[in-house]
Design a protein that fits this description.
- It contains 9 helices and 13 strands.
- It has 2 domains: 84 residues, ACT domain (Alpha-Beta Plaits, 2-Layer Sandwich); 195 residues, Formyl transferase, N-terminal domain (Rossmann fold, 3-Layer(aba) Sandwich).
- Helix 2 packs antiparallel against helix 3 and helix 8 crosses helix 9.
Length: 301
């Protein structure tokens, strides 16, 4: 299976080796789209997809995602970026990035004892539906070791206690740095990440919260939901910030429940929602479909 996925990944990369994705956010004003389009045209690029959104058209923010093809992209990318910074980005005060679609983002998945979110990501990766490389899995428990290593993915057991938390995070940071990780996924990792850790990966740590935020933050949300007699439960994928469960929301989903469902029923239903919501969020992130502005996201999906 791994060999088949690897071959499929190479074919995918070869087919899009000259394709790039540009993400831009900037204060809204006339002429932005024309300037970007003209720049790409003058450099020989062909736009294949463009999505845009204006937040508060009167004095608000403008967001755009553009996919384009450019012959010999890898050789010409540095020059393209330097020219764009000077000719277009500075004029419109842009926050921007250009990424090669053939370069897969490298993920580190953090997990504790519950396996459902991890297994969903592994399955999508095996099927070729998650366009990323899973560089490693890190866990504060050894339970997932055999599953992960059977797929040829490095597994690192880093125990965490109240006394060893700082040392554990230092170990984790070294592992992800050495692994050239682009994004960290908390797949039901039941530890609070410190602000010092977060500052190394701003808007690059994705968490799945097992409730429909902002309701039922913190621990035991299904017990909280049961006590309130809710009729809809859900899950929320969001970027991690210093505010507990308060980061920019990427994706949410819900399912209707009834008075007949007990806490265990809610957990079972919730696990299904969690795995789907997290996988969507991770997929959109690695495909460069998300722009963050303040504590909100614009998702071009």
């Amino acid at each position: 299976m791994n060999r088949m996925v690897s071959q499929a990944g190479r074919s995918w990369s070869e087919g899009k080796k000259d394709r790039a994705c540009m993400l831009i956010s900037c204060p809204d004003q006339p002429g932005i789209v024309a300037a970007v389009s003209r720049f790409l045209h003058e450099h020989g690029a062909n736009i294949v997809q463009s999505d845009q959104y204006t937040m508060d058209p009167e004095g608000g923010m403008f967001f755009i995602r553009i996919e384009f093809d450019l012959s010999e992209l890898e050789r010409r990318l540095d020059t393209l970026e330097m020219d764009f910074a000077e000719v277009v980005a500075a004029k419109f005060h842009m926050n921007w990035s250009i990424s090669q679609e053939s370069r897969k983002k490298r993920l580190a998945i953090f997990v504790s004892k519950e396996d459902h979110c991890l297994l969903e990501l592994l399955w999508q990766w095996q099927a070729g539906d998650l366009n990323a490389d899973i560089a490693m899995v890190i866990s504060n428990h050894p339970d997932m070791k055999d599953i992960v290593e059977s797929l040829g993915i490095p597994f690192h057991h880093v125990p965490v206690t109240a006394d060893s938390k700082q040392q554990a995070e230092e170990t984790q940071l070294k592992l992800v740095a050495d692994g050239r990780v682009d994004c960290i996924v908390l797949a039901r990792y039941m530890q609070i990440i410190s602000p010092k850790f977060i500052e190394h990966y701003p808007n690059k740590i994705i968490n799945i919260h097992h409730s429909f935020l902002p309701a039922f933050v913190g621990g035991k949300p299904y017990a909280q939901a049961y006590q309130r007699g809710v009729k809809i439960i859900g899950a929320t994928a969001h970027y991690v910030t210093e505010e507990l469960d308060g980061g920019p929301i990427i994706e949410q989903d819900v399912q209707r429940v009834s008075h007949r469902d007990n806490v265990n029923d809610l957990k079972r239903i919730g696990r299904h929602i969690e795995r789907i919501v997290l996988a969507r969020a991770v997929s959109w992130h690695v495909e460069d479909r998300i722009l963050v502005h303040e504590n909100k996201t614009v998702v071009f999906n």
